[in-house]
From TrEMBL:
Organism: Elysia marginata
An example molecular function term from Gene Ontology annotations: histone acetyltransferase activity
Family matches, as Gene3D superfamilies: 3.40.630.30
Source taxon at top rank: Eukaryota
Name this protein carries in UniProt: N-alpha-acetyltransferase 60
GO biological process: chromosome segregation
Alphabetically ordered keywords of this record: Acyltransferase, Chromatin regulator, Chromosome partition, Transferase
Top EC class, one word: transferase
GO cellular component: Golgi membrane
Family indicated by similarity: Belongs to the acetyltransferase family. NAA60 subfamily.
Length: 197
């Protein structure tokens, strides 16, 4: 028998609305990202994610207050960073698309209420629509010490792809990370028999 979420979680989910970010959200998003993430994003990044159509930037709101957001970008395989260049099997052409999750976060008081799952499910629905069938994977980078995020993505069927030593610079110190990937729309990993070993 599956456990049901607490009644308060159900009530919160019913009160949450989803909408795309707009330039009017920049200050609120800056504040949230500074609270959630140990990485300092440049100002132009906030402008881009709230105004450029190249980003999928979705906010979860509770009575007009942003309580969560997901930001992703479609990238062609040929333009991936070196550490991400081996996410797909060789059979896929260089123009094959992958979605990179830049950020996914939820306000502390609203965590463990299904908000991150709602945001991720919305992104995955968008990416698995017929018109985006050329997108074969969703991937992200995460701090190796962020056990809550690691467990979340693993429960959502993301696979650990690579260990990224010294990937992050946080507070002047090098920190390790992982890349995680979820294959969609017929996407396949570069190894088949042994992956993810």
């Amino acid at each position: 028998m599956e456990m049901q979420p607490p009644l308060s979680a159900l009530r919160i989910q019913q009160e949450v609305q989803l909408r795309f970010l707009s330039p009017n959200d920049i200050e609120e998003v800056k504040t949230l990202c500074r609270e959630w993430f140990p990485i300092e994003y440049p100002d132009y990044w906030y402008t881009d994610i709230t105004s450029s159509p190249r980003f999928y930037s979705l906010a979860a709101t509770h009575y007009s207050r942003i309580i969560g957001l997901v930001v992703a970008e479609l990238r062609s395989q040929e333009k991936l960073n070196k550490e991400d260049s081996d996410l797909l099997a060789n059979q896929f052409p260089p123009n094959t698309q992958l979605a990179y999750i830049l950020s996914l976060g939820v306000v502390g008081d609203f965590r463990r209420n299904g908000i991150a799952s709602l945001l991720l499910d919305s992104l995955l629905s968008y990416l698995t629509a017929k018109e985006r069938s050329n997108c074969k994977a969703v991937y992200l980078h995460v701090l190796s010490t962020n056990t809550v995020a690691l467990r979340f993505y693993e429960r959502r069927k993301f696979r650990r792809h690579l260990f990224l030593p010294y990937y992050y610079a946080i507070g002047g110190k090098a920190r390790d990370g992982y890349s995680y990937v979820l294959y969609i729309n017929g996407g396949q990993p570069p190894w088949s028999l042994l992956y993810p070993f």
